[in-house]
Design a protein that fits this description.
alpha/beta, six-stranded parallel beta sheet
C-alpha cells in the first residue's frame, strides 16, 4: 500500500531545517504520520514565496490533525513559519500541534530597564494570536528552562511540557555506564533539572555577568 492510500492520524509539515525529522516520523510510523514537503522559496526582493505541501494534487490537509515541526532559529525563519501556521489554521484543519524543540527566547522573560523587550512575552503573544480552528493550537515545549513561560500563552494556544532527559539517561546508561557525575552550567539549570538526575553526583558551575558576557 502506498503512502497516499494510508489514512494516518497526523499530516506533518516541517520547517526547512528540520524536514528530516518529519521524514523520520513517516519512515518509522507510516500508519500514524504522513510527511509533506514544503517549498520555502523567496522572491527576488527577499519576501517569502512558500508553497505548503499536502494540498496538491489532492488536499490531504483539510479536516485533518496537522503537526508542524518548527525551528525558530532566527527572526526571519520564525516569521516565515508563523505565516505557514496561519495558513494551515485557515485551511479547515481539525487541529494544529506545533512542536517547538527549542524555545529561543525562554530566558528573556523579564525587564531590568524600561525599554527592554521581554521577547519571551512577545513571542508568546504572537503564538496566542494565531487564528482558531475550533480548538487551541497545542504548543509542545521541550525542557523549557524557565517554567513560567508556559503561562504566557493564552487565548488560542496552550503549552504542553515535555522532556528529552529520559532519552538522554537511557543513552547514557547504555553507552557510558561509568559516568557518575552531572555538571550544570549555572544554579538555574541545577534547580530546574537536578531532580531528574538523582542517581548522580552534581557539579554546579558559577556564572558571572559582565555586560553581555557570561563567565
Amino acid at each position: 500500500m502506498s503512502l497516499t492510500e494510508i489514512n494516518p492520524k497526523y499530516e506533518v509539515i516541517a520547517a526547512d531545517s528540520v524536514e528530516e525529522w518529519g521524514l523520520l516520523l513517516q519512515e518509522k510510523y507510516p500508519a500514524v504520520f504522513r510527511f509533506h514537503q514544503t517549498s520555502w522559496g523567496k522572491f527576488p526582493d527577499g519576501t517569502d514565496n512558500i508553497k505548503i505541501g499536502g494540498f496538491h494534487p489532492k488536499n490531504y490537509i483539510r479536516g485533518k490533525n496537522v503537526i508542524f515541526i518548527a525551528s525558530f532559529d532566527n527572526n526571519a525563519e520564525t516569521l516565515s513559519q508563523l505565516y505557514v501556521c496561519i495558513a494551515l489554521l485557515e485551511s479547515l484543519i481539525e487541529s494544529l500541534t506545533l512542536i517547538l524543540p527549542f524555545y529561543p527566547v525562554g530566558t528573556m522573560e523579564r525587564v531590568v530597564f524600561e525599554g527592554e523587550v521581554a521577547t519571551a512575552n512577545t513571542l508568546a503573544r504572537l503564538l496566542s494570536s494565531l487564528p482558531p480552528c475550533g480548538k487551541p493550537t497545542r504548543v509542545m515545549l521541550y525542557d523549557l528552562h524557565t517554567l513560567q513561560n508556559r503561562f504566557y500563552l493564552s487565548n488560542h494556544a496552550v503549552a504542553t511540557m515535555h522532556s528529552t532527559v529520559p532519552l538522554f539517561l537511557a543513552e547514557l546508561k547504555r553507552n557510558h555506564p561509568n559516568v557518575t557525575c552531572i555538571a550544570f552550567p549555572d544554579e538555574g539549570a541545577s534547580k530546574r533539572f537536578t531532580y531528574m538526575f538523582q542517581d548522580f553526583e552534581h557539579v554546579v558551575c558559577g556564572k558571572k555577568r559582565e555586560g553581555d558576557k557570561r563567565k
